[in-house]
Design a protein that fits this description.
Low-confidence stretches: none
Distance between the termini: 23 Å
Order of helices and strands: EHHEEEEE
Number of strands: 6
Number of domains: 1
Shape: globular
Mean pLDDT: 91
Length: about 70
């Protein structure tokens, strides 16, 4: 995992580990369908989190938006 902003790290750290695992394993890849994200970076999107990384099956770019409620 790479980080672009310390604030987003704090948001990510506040999520329970089981929820983080579910999020990371539920990413959509246009080629493979539902997949796991790897080599991801955290990006701050106002009060939410954006994960950008690679599909664990084919290696293509994927992203996952995580709403912070």
């Amino acid at each position: 995992m790479s980080v672009t902003d310390f604030g987003v790290v704090q948001k990510w750290a506040q999520l329970p580990e089981n929820i983080k695992k579910l999020i990371l394993a539920n990413v959509f890849c246009p080629s493979c369908g539902v997949t796991t994200i790897k080599k991801y970076t955290l990006h701050d999107d106002k009060s939410d989190i954006l994960l950008k990384g690679k599909c664990s099956k084919c290696g293509k770019d994927v992203a996952r938006f995580v709403e912070n409620e």
